[in-house]
Amino acid sequence: MFSPHLLAIWQLGSGVMLWWAAAAALPLLIHLWTRRQFRETKWAAMTFLLAAMQKHSRRIRLEQWLLLALRVAIPLVFALALANPQQVGSAIWNTLTGQGRTDRGHCLLVIDGSFSMDFRAAGVSRFDEARRLASEMIDQNPQGTGYSLLLMGQPTQTIIGDPAFEDNDVKQELAGLSLTHGGASLLSTLTAIEQALAEAEKKYGVLPQRRVVFFTDLGKTTWGEVSSPECLQRFAALQQKGISCSLVDVGQAGADNSAITELVSESPWITIQDPTTFRVDLSNERAAGASSSAPQRMIVALYVDGQRVAEQRVDLPAGGRASVPFVQRVETAGEHVIEAVLLDDQLPVDNHRWRWINVRRALSVLCIEGRHGEADHLLLALRPQQNEAARIEVRRATESELIEGDLSKYDIVALCNVGRFSQNEGQALRQYVERGGNLLVLLGDQVQPASYNEILAAAKPLLPAKIGELQRGNDLRIDPLQYRHPLVAAFRGHQRSGLLTTPVWTFHQLQPLPGANAALALSTGDPVLLERSFGRGRCLLLGIASSPLSLDRTVDPPRPWSTLSTWPSFPPLIQEAAAFVAASKDRDRTAEVGQPIEGEFAGTLPRPIVILRKPNYGATAGSEDRLAVTDEQGRTRWVVPGQTRSGKYEIHSPAEGEPLLASFVVNPDTRESNLERVALEQLPETLRATAATESTATAGQFGPPKTWFRELLLGVFGLLLTESIVAWHLGRGVR
Fold first, then answer.
1. Parallel/antiparallel/unpaired status of strands 624-632 and 635-640
2. Please, are residues 648 and 337 in contact by the beta-carbon 8 Å criterion?
3. CA dist., res. 397 & res. 74, Å (int)
4. Contact 105, 90 (CB under 8 A)
5. So what's the pLDDT on residue 99?
6. When comparing pLDDT for 461 and 5, which is higher?
7. What is the mean pLDDT of residues 293-316?
8. 233 shares a domain with 275
């Protein structure tokens, strides 16, 4: 039987000429008209003739039908010749036997999806231009060409893997492509190309014509590795297999771009009490060869939860940087999204930057005292002004609060010279920190190192160090370790703050665990302030007593371990520690493209499913995904994989009304803001030649199909000659 692909191997150069085939009806009409002109009349003399002719009637009828068929075929074949039929593929037999696809071409369309492709010249983005040119290439290729479609990104997305032989299907996939808001990896793309070619070879064998066509702006962040040995080796391997590579350049030389590179809050935590300064950092990437070096007057707007609240103008130097401060007060507690927008720029993606913030009524701290009065100096350092409008709320409690209370209500839990822990108390502290809480452990003379090490520093340690024996010395001093840690960076240049002159006589020796970072040490080299991440939270451990109640009774008279708690440097040190952990807690809802993000909220859902609403982009409405969540002891935890587009994302309950449960923001990777291009000289020879000389129409076009015009025209002459001979033969027989 005929393969369903038989018709797909033909295309017509001028299909409208097939209308001439209607002339084939003329011989039939003449034949029918001639039959109507005769009227049958019975005649006695003809009876003998009819009897004689009946012996030859079948032969005569066949001769007449043959002559009629020849006369009908002449205009049909002539019309087909005028339509210029073209054969796609060279083995009709393979097509008839179901193997016709093995003679088709395979074209891999590779579209650059990095966000520099959103740069717009005359209102048209490079990405849209690439899709248009790819669609145009499909129209100009022979019918029956197979296409694979890849979108360059991190990682590269395979849109069509197995070759698709229906042009309209490929065009629909092209039209549905979405630009990513990150960069692209050339090595990842080459891996995807090799996989697509290998899969096509398994399914269809080695197709006789295979070509890879890149549609790109040749951005340096994507193509900078093209001259690396690995990339050159891979391009050479493709060429050795007979796979040609070509490139369609949709970029523009000398394109400038301005971008928002950062949006940060100057306050480590934000409360409804105080105005907050949001700093917007701008940069201008001046292309090589740009003519103007004058500063650009830019407009930067600030939005809070989608409402425009402020606007400033700034002169951005060509190829330079600028910062714009916005002082804004957020008057309601809870989750909010701050957005900075740069107006009037040709690359829209990096004109936006988001920051998720958690606005508190105040920073909440719970102090667990090992004995009464241990937290007095800590409370005074955290809240030096005892008024209702304080930015930090402090509550003191006993050890029973670790089991009986709800630790999740507090931003920081401080353990002040607590002697020992039970297994349940240790488990409660682990869960609290793992879910995003922050633990401040202040040691003292009541601490039992064995209990701490067993409960909090054993398998999967919560503490940043194991606690060793007590150490004593005479007039030891604190070493800030060159102020490398952000917790003590504020003391740089303030030697008179008292931090360096704090006398220390007794301390717990700390043995750092993997992942621990030292912020302070003693003049002996022993670390005394360590921090370490645990889950989504953080733990700080101070080996010096934070209260004068801890005494060294081995000397007479007993003396305090140190004067740290009464020294002028103690309040700013504790404030910086609180700021450090508070800032760490709020960073987990602001991510970059490609980074996974997670969170949790109180309560459970009837079904472990939530709705993830993605942001709108331009006129394109955001889509929705169903997201599985997990129940962890009365709290719902969600994890969102890395996203490809920037903006505000919302997590809603599937219940009636779809209430908002949580939100987070994703920012673009601003490395793509630099529109610098690679030089053509850096490209492999095959790409360099096509990028420099080949037109778009020929970059991915296969060899011209075989045309049958001459053969069909010869057939017309043959039919005319045959018709004349047959008519002459029949006419001679009649005479």
1. antiparallel
2. yes
3. 106
4. no
5. 42
6. 461
7. 91
8. no
Count how many domains the chain has.
5
Q: Residues 453, 486: one domain?
A: yes
Instruction: Give yes or no: residues 486 and 353 share one domain.
Output: no
Beta carbons of 166 and 149 less than 8 angstroms apart: no
Number of C-beta neighbours around residue 596 at 10 A: 10
Burial class (CB in 10 A: 0-12, 13-18, 19+), 168: exposed
Asked whether residue 62 is assigned to any structural domain, the reply reads: yes
Q: What separation, in Å, do the N-terminal and C-terminal C-alpha atoms of the chain show?
A: 47
Is residue 193 assigned to a domain? yes
CATH code assigned at 686: 3.40.50.410
Residue 49 pLDDT more than 90? Answer: no
Angle between helices 57-82 and 709-734 (to 10 degrees): 160
| Residue 412 near residue 581 (C-beta atoms within 8 A) | yes
List of residues 6+ apart from 243 with CB closer than 8 A = 197, 210, 211, 212
Distances (CA, A) of 441 to 369, 447, 484: 11, 11, 21
What backbone torsions phi and psi does residue 103 show, to the nearest 5 degrees?
-100, 5
In sequence order, the β-bridge partners of residue 14 are: none
Decide the pairing of beta strands 276-285 and 321-328.
antiparallel
Tokens of 560: 């305090």
In contact, 369 and 550? CB cutoff 8 Å: no
Q: What b/e sequence results for 499-525 when a residue is b if at least 16 CB atoms lie within 10 Å of its CB, and e otherwise? A: beebebbbbbbbebeeebbbbbbbeee
SS3 167: helix
499 shares a domain with 571: yes
The residue range of the domain holding 722 is: 1-15+51-88+709-735
In whole angstroms, give the CA distance from residue 686 to residue 501: 69
Residue 173 lies in a domain: yes
Q: What is the DSSP string of 100-152?
A: GGGGSEEEEEEEE-SGGGG-EETTEEHHHHHHHHHHHHHHHSPTT-EEEEEEE
> d(Cα 31, Cα 732) in Å, to the nearest integer?
20
* Model pLDDT for residues 473-521, shown as the tens digit of each residue: 888 999 999 999 999 998 998 877 888 999 999 999 999 999 999 999 9
Q: Is 38 exposed, middle or buried (0-12, 13-18, 19+ CB in 10 A)?
A: exposed
Q: Is the same domain home to 264 and 318?
A: yes
Task: Select from 546, 567, 587 the last residue of a domain.
Answer: 587
89: pLDDT confidence band, cut at 50, 70 and 90?
Answer: very low
Domain with residue 604: its CATH number is: 2.60.40
**656, 671 contact by CB (below 8 A):** no
How confident is the model over 204-231, as pLDDT tens digits? 877 778 899 999 999 999 999 999 999 9
The reply to whether omega before 557 is within 30° of 0 (cis) is yes
Closest CA to 133 of 25, 217, 15: 217
If we measure between CA atoms, which residue out of 303, 434, 395 comes closest to residue 357?
303
